[in-house]
User: What shape does this take?
Amino acid sequence: MKNIVILISGGGSNMAAIVRASRQQSWAAQVPARVVAVISNKASAGGLAWAQGEGIATQALDHKAFASREAFDAELVRTIDAYQPALVVLAGFMRILTPGFVAHYQGRLVNIHPSLLPAFPGLHTHQRAIDAGCQVAGATVHQVTTELDVGPILAQGVVPVLPGDTADTLAARVLVQEHEIYPRAVLQLLRSLP
Assistant: This one.
């Protein structure tokens, strides 16, 4: 059985999509895996309550309680490693991770970004796509490296940018794609891991 640990900072809709997919028979037939823990840097993250309701272990680790980013990441590694994960999945985890953290999980750390990378890394991706006059936008699942939003691309989902779109309306359509491509990319990566 391959263990998955998911890190969140908010509502956890991508986390929920991965949990639901991991419980489907079609997933289990390809790779025995399960989400064993959901960890957040915010005790108020709505996704923690959802995960608890699903019988998944949860923990909150407040990054503000640590003197440095390195100290927080060191404790986060200790917390994650207690679950012996094959894969660590960032699902709306709003923290930039230290090089030491990324190196510890090299090849086993994935993220989803709400743009068609390499276009629009960082924040405010939907408004930036609209402002640039893009015809399409979307989401990218990628492996995490020490450089923000530039790791190897595992999957992408595309949506049209419609006339009159706002950042919110575009974000809603992109989120639907995220819920479809993230579980598939996680499954594909798990199948490739020893």
